Amino acid sequence: MTGERHGSIRATWLGHASVLLEDGAVVLTDPVLTHRVVHLHRRAGGTPRVPTPAPDIVVVSHLHADHLHLPSLRLLAQGTVVLVPRGAAPLLRRLPLDVVEVAAGDTVTVQGTAVTAVPARHSGTRWPWARLRCAALGYLVEGNGAAYFAGDTVAFPDMAALHPALDLALLPVGGWGPWLRGEHLDPRAAADCLRLLRPRVALPIHYGTLWPSGMGWVRPSAFHDPGHRFAEHARRTAPDVDVRVLAPGASTEVGCGAGRSGS
To answer: What's the CATH number where 22 sits?
Structure first.
């Protein structure tokens, strides 16, 4: 769906990597809908529970517990379609959900909105000691417009070829602790990705929400600042991209189609 588009995408950032996209169908990314995730607690925004409108389809990017969060998935309505990386379905076997395994290149269409799994570069394990390994994914959502949810990733060679005319990119710019480890984008690296992706609008996510209990005093800038640092770097590296820094729970509308400006 790369031709002329009309209408808009409404994006609501629920915190961390959870975004509710209303783009024809309602798509929910990596839902974390509770106050706590293992040793992490929510420090910003209210606990969202199940968002409204209810999602038509849920996408899970990889196996880490702050992305594939079973207590949050358990809150979804019975029969909700949930896309997971190929091999991950056994982790959800006790949940009354319609679990669909996908690999990069696979497309599932719900209510006229196409959701396509795309590559990502990030750890594929659930826990450091776990044997189960599934390739991490991002997702393209094409309904009224074209949106890219990166999940967790670093830049990869084919990123520039994901879509010729993105309306919206949801990019991780931080993490859930004082130090960012492993294959993650920091604010500067995420801003550099904008030159490859060329979206009209970008939202920073995956920061400013979860934090280890009792560590609020350790490097607080790593919690609060990544979104604004991403916007600052983007003004220099990709000045044509409209970067919108939201608070958890806030929404924005993105107009779709060539020549349209976001609102």
So the answer is: 3.60.15.10
